[in-house]
Write a structure and sequence with these properties.
The protein is α/β, with parallel strands linked by helices. The protein has a five-stranded mixed barrel with strand order 5-6-7-9-8. Strands 1-2 form a two-stranded parallel ribbon. β8 and β9 form a beta hairpin. The radius of gyration is 24 Å and the shape is globular.
């Protein structure tokens, strides 16, 4: 009762809307406590993977960011931030600590490190980075930016205030023209007077983007119709670029500041917790894929035990491994097949019974 009173007080004091709960030790007990505490309110909770949170909390970076916090509080901050911006938080951790497959220790470690680093860099560059809020950890994964330059960018920002344009990057020590050419297209400046600074359009293509607006008119909502009328090939030729580049520019002009992650399934917000006894065969549920193994996938459906979808019940076509169609974090619809209370096992299927 005392804990519930304290948490309720914190929720009111800080106007909390969502509680992030780690899926590790005592995660389910914490979930039940949170569900009881927020009952009758608008507050929701989300179960978040806490893989690697303890590595971050004991790291030098964790100590630098939160020198006055002990490791348990640093872990709590990391778990909450994973809900706010998973990419910005997970880049602080060695990818191997997140758990990238059951055979990761059998791989040649040097090659594994290089491959994982490449994947992280691809993710960061695909999403883009806000130049005025990004941490050193996030910036150092941008193409053309090493850890020294990343620190210089943050130091410049702290000394001079927010960046007002991409061009201002050239004032950062040790960030030369070559590095600028590599990184500029991945860094966003929402505060810039130049709209294109908040898109994935590279400064080298600004002239082409402006030529496109002159050719089709400055009303961005009518751009697709105007391009159809003029013809993609002719418009590309007029702007001095290829058709693929033209299509990329068009997409960015239509949605400046676009975050590709917005198209991904939203996390499941919950406000109550079910028990295994609430489950009956045939019940339809929405869950989150937590883990992939050779013989199937474990899905969190909001009870204390994750349910197993056997590989034969994932889809109608033949697959050799569940990872061909599923990955951790996917939101899926499942149906309950069988519940074994004694063995604490839940069998699920993703194939709706006809």
């Amino acid at each position: 009762a005392e804990a519930e009173r304290i948490v309720t007080g914190l929720i009111k004091k800080h106007n909390v809307k969502v509680i992030s709960i780690g899926n590790g030790t005592a995660g389910r007990e914490t979930e039940k406590f949170a569900a009881d505490t927020v009952k009758g309110t608008d507050v929701k909770y989300v179960i978040v993977s806490e893989a690697g949170a303890s590595v971050y909390s004991a790291s030098r970076l964790g100590a630098e960011e939160f020198p006055d916090y002990d490791v348990s509080l640093r872990s709590a901050v990391s778990i909450a931030r994973r809900l706010q911006d998973p990419l910005a938080e997970l880049v602080k951790i060695d990818p191997k600590s997140i758990g990238v497959g059951q055979y990761q220790h059998d791989m040649p470690q040097k090659r594994l490190d290089e491959t994982l680093e490449g994947v992280v860099e691809d993710c960061v560059n695909s999403v883009g980075v806000d130049l005025n809020t990004a941490s050193v950890s996030l910036l150092s994964h941008v193409s053309g930016v090493n850890s020294t330059v990343a620190k210089n960018i943050v130091a410049y920002r702290e000394a001079e205030g927010a960046f007002r344009s991409r061009k201002e990057l050239l004032k950062v020590p040790k960030l030369g023209a070559k590095a600028y050419e590599q990184c500029a297209g991945f860094l966003r400046v929402p505060e810039s007077a130049e709209m294109l600074d908040n898109t994935a359009v590279h400064p080298e293509s600004y002239r082409a983007a402006k030529s496109l607006l002159l050719l089709c008119g400055s009303d961005i909502s009518k751009l697709p119709d105007e391009l159809k009328r003029i013809g993609m090939d002719k418009a590309a030729e007029e702007c001095g670029i290829g058709v693929p580049t033209l299509k990329d520019i068009l997409r960015e002009l239509q949605k400046p500041g676009r975050d590709p992650r917005d198209e991904l399934p939203k996390p499941l917000l919950r406000s109550d917790v079910m028990e295994m006894s609430d489950l009956v065969p045939g019940m339809e549920l929405t869950g989150t894929v937590r883990n992939i193994v050779d013989f199937g996938a474990f899905v969190d459906i909001g009870v204390h035990q994750d349910g197993l979808v056997h590989i034969s019940r994932i889809c109608d076509k033949f697959i050799r491994h569940p990872s061909e169609v599923l990955k951790p974090g996917d939101i899926v619809t499942v149906w309950v097949l069988e519940v074994d209370q004694k063995k604490k096992r839940i069998s699920l299927t993703m194939k709706k019974e006809r």
